[in-house]
Amino acid sequence: MLEKIKEIKAAIDAFVIDSPAKLEEFRISYLAKKGVITDLMTGLKDVVQEERKSIGLALNDLKTKAWEKFEQQQSGLGESTVETDAPDMNLPVQVFPLGSRHPLSIVRQEIIEIFEQMGFAMSDGPEIEDDWHNFSALNFPQNHPARDMQDTFFISKNPDVLLRTHTSTVQVRLMEKQKPPIRAIMPGRVYRNEAISARAHCLFHQIEGLYIDRNVGFKDLKQTLYHFVKEMFGKDQKIRFRPSFFPFTEPSAEIDISCLICNGAGCNICKHTGWVEIGGSGMVDPNVLTANNIDPEEFTGFAFGMGIERITMLRYGIKDLRLFTENDVRFVSQFSGLS
Ligand code: DAH
Fold this sequence. Notes:
Layout (H helix, E strand, L loop, with lengths): L1 H13 L5 H12 L4 H8 L5 H29 L25 H15 L3 E2 L5 E3 H4 L19 E3 L4 E3 L4 H10 L4 E10 L11 E11 L4 H16 L5 E8 L2 E10 L16 E10 L1 H6 L8 E8 H9 L6 H4 L2 H4 L7
Parallel strand pairs: 1-5
Antiparallel strand pairs: 2-4, 3-4, 5-6, 6-10, 7-8, 8-9, 9-10
The structure holds 3,4-dihydroxyphenylalanine.
């Protein structure tokens, strides 16, 4: 019985009374005729003679404590009759919910830190662009389908003003203002005229990388991304380069990593291939260097562009792209406490 009294005492101490409803709940649980303390009092008659006195005392003590807390809180919650500017110490504490960082910001920051450790600087550029920076300076032929209205949001035609469709635009902006060596990463938001679904969105984020210097080779590209993937996803993560095509790189390669969901065994996410794509890469096409006044005889470089949503989805097992922009607190609050 003494144990039981102790337990109730702890429960009384821990009971938070911050509203009249809570106060009433406290009264009914502990002080009412059918409350636990009265119950125990009734049970006292069954306690053996030698213990009755000590248990009786403990019970009385418990009852006094419960009444004290009740009365104290009752006066605290009631309207104060004393007019004063001093803070009311009886007011219950207001708990403000803590915000959390958006998962895309968390992952973006992680990516930046990994590349910064390898000596990459940060750079950025505008989201509203022109044809030159989004296409022409990147060696897109005039009739390339990506220039089509279907992919690109045009703000005006002639002169071309558009929402950038990729962060490769910042490569051009950077080459305009800086001579090699250039070693930078460029995160940012991009836009494409796509129907919104679990797998596609009209706005998303990329991170671009560019490294131009003398004697930069494909091996440097491979090693840089190899290191990035190990740092980002763990040392057992496998990476592969799949030949591809981009107008601004030659040769070009898609970057795949082994599927984090099934560990390469094959699942829906990786379409049973065991691999998932995280971005594109390649050696900067000499035409791009020339268009940006860099001599391709003297300098070579590599570039890459990765999807931040894609990396975040793989990282946290998120299956629907729309969750990122819906601002549902139940989704974003799951990332609180992560830096
Ligand atoms: N800009 C490409 C896209 O949006 C991605 C990309 C591929 C960027 C290869 C690069 C690169 O810098 O070298 O799909």
